[in-house]
């Protein structure tokens, strides 16, 4: 079964950790967010919205789940995160005004949506000319990175290979995203791979508990309880063989990070191409 982002049982699933300082540095190396109006579409529990507010941005987080919006508001209040607000809305129809954003973030979103072009069109509508779009998601190259005591997610696919098919059905490749960006009116497209610290665990028992709770991992909702137990037992056994079990465990995830500019010249050309002759 897929994850139900609206369910009460999802409370806290995407709000219980902080953004990796390495992620903050990677974004700061692309764009100085201080004073910029940023829209975080698919903000979940507000982890990255609050991080960007702490970087000096004026942030609006948007999520289709009332449960997630509630979590995000609670998180922001607890952190005293600065200029950040959260609203419920669809990724293809946020309800925010045209040209109201200097930057838009789509983090871990596009693999969940039915239409990437529709989401990019909404992001383009929100951005001022020259505004920047940031997309963070996994390609199959990221998914299939070799497992290790740090890249724990890699063991999902070694232990339960059928999960590769789940990922292959929802993960875009770099060329596909680049094409969608060009067609949506974006230029100056770049990307690079990002190794992001997801979380540190005090010990193996803490990791086991986190995995069994499926916290922040939608793919684990594709498993029944028996399959999940098999997976977690296998991961813990592999880590125990490769590293001391009484030491902290760092979990690192691999992603691809794209950035592009809303290019009015590209948008004008796209519009002209679709005008009646």
Give an overview in words.
Helix 2 links the parallel strand 1 and strand 2. The N terminus and C terminus are likely disordered. The protein has two domains: 120 residues, Vaccinia Virus protein VP39 (Rossmann fold), CATH 3.40.50; 91 residues, no CATH class. It is globular, with a radius of gyration of 19 Å. It is of the alpha/beta class.
Summary keywords:
single chain, 277 residues, alpha/beta, Rossmann fold, seven-stranded mixed β-sheet, 11 helices, 38% helix, globular, disordered N terminus, disordered C terminus, SAM-dependent methyltransferase
Question: Layout of SSEs?
Answer:
Blueprint (H helix, E strand, L loop, with lengths): L20 H8 L8 E5 L5 H8 L3 E6 L2 H14 L4 E5 L12 E7 L8 H11 E11 L2 H4 L10 H6 L2 H7 L5 H10 L2 E16 L2 H9 L12 H18 L6 E14 L1 H10 L4
Helix pairs in contact: 9-10
């Amino acid at each position: 079964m897929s994850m139900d982002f609206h369910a009460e049982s999802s409370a806290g699933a995407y709000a219980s950790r902080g953004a990796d300082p390495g992620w903050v540095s990677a974004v700061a190396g692309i764009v100085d967010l201080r004073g910029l109006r940023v829209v975080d579409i698919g903000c979940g529990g507000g982890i990255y919205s609050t991080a960007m507010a702490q970087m000096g941005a004026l942030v609006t987080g948007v999520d289709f789940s009332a449960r997630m919006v509630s979590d995000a508001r609670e998180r922001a209040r607890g952190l005293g995160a600065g200029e950040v607000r959260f609203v419920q809305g669809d990724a293809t129809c946020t309800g925010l005004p045209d040209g109201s954003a200097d930057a838009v973030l789509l983090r871990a979103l596009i693999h969940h949506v039915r239409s990437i072009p529709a989401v990019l069109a909404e992001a383009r509508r929100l951005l001022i000319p020259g505004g920047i779009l940031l997309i963070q998601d996994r390609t199959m190259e990221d998914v299939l990175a070799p497992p290790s005591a740090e890249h724990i997610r890699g063991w999902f696919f070694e232990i339960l290979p059928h999960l590769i098919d789940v990922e292959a059905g929802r993960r875009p490749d770099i060329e596909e995203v680049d094409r969608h960006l060009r067609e949506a009116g974006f230029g100056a497209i770049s990307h690079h791979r990002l190794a992001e610290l997801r979380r540190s665990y005090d010990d193996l028992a803490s990791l086991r508990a986190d995995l069994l709770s499926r916290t922040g991992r939608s793919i684990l909702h594709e498993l029944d309880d028996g399959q999940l137990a098999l997976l977690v037992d296998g991961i813990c056994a592999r880590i125990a063989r490769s590293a001391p079990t009484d030491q902290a465990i760092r979990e690192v995830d691999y992603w691809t990070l794209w950035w592009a500019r809303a290019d009015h010249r590209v948008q004008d050309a796209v519009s002209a191409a679709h005008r009646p002759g």
